[in-house]
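Bench notes, afternoon.
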Amino acid sequence: MRGRRNMRAQLLAGDGPLARARPIAAFVVVIALFLTGVLVSGLVGAVLLGLLAVGVGVLLATTWPVLRPNERLLRVLVLGILIVIAVVQLR
């Protein structure tokens, strides 16, 4: 079992933009984007959720080599659910 993650630690190793982002700030932005996308119906909501899905996909592709198989499965599942919700918003 892993210990608790330091909330001031880097999200990703390196010097990219996510390495400088605080995890709590990233969490708040993702939650706000998701809730706005779900609450705003139609094309606007679908686009917001689509942008979030693209971000999740990029993050998944970036971290893929260091993830264990069960972590990969869970993240792919979350990405799939996000895409389904975005498509439902178009109705």
